[in-house]
Amino acid sequence: MELAFAIVIGALTASGVYLLLRARTFPVVMGLTLLSYGVNLFLFSSGRLATGGQPIIGSTEAYSDPLPQALVLTAIVIGFAMTAFVVVLSLRSLADHSDDHVDGKVSDSVEPEKTEGETGREDAKS
Amino acid sequence: MNHWLIAPILIPLVGGILQAFMGYAPIALRRTLGIATTTLTLASAILLMGLANDDSYRLYAFGNWQPPFGIVMVLDRLAALMLVLTSVLALFAHIYSLGGADGNNRQFHGLFLFQLLGLNIAFLTGDLFNLFVAFEVLLIASYGLLMHGEGKNRTVPGLHYVVLNLVGSAIFLISVGMIYSVTGTLNMADLAQKIPQVAPGNLPIVQAGGMMLLVVFGLKAAILPLCFWLPSAYANATAPVAALFAIMTKVGIYAIIRVCNLIFGEQAGDLSGLGMDWLFPLALITLVMGVIGALGATNLRKLFAWQVIISVGTLLAAISLNSERGTSAALFYLVNTTWVVGGLFLLADLISGQRGTASDQIVTAPRMRNRTFLSVLYLVGAVAAAGLPPLSGFFAKLLILDSAVPGTVRTWLWLVMLVGSFFTLIAYSRAGSIVFWRNVEGHLEEPRKLTGTIAVPASALIALSLVIVVLAEPLSRYVDSTAAQLHNPAAYIEVLKTPMVEEK
Question: What ipTM does this complex have?
Answer without folding.
Answer: 0.85
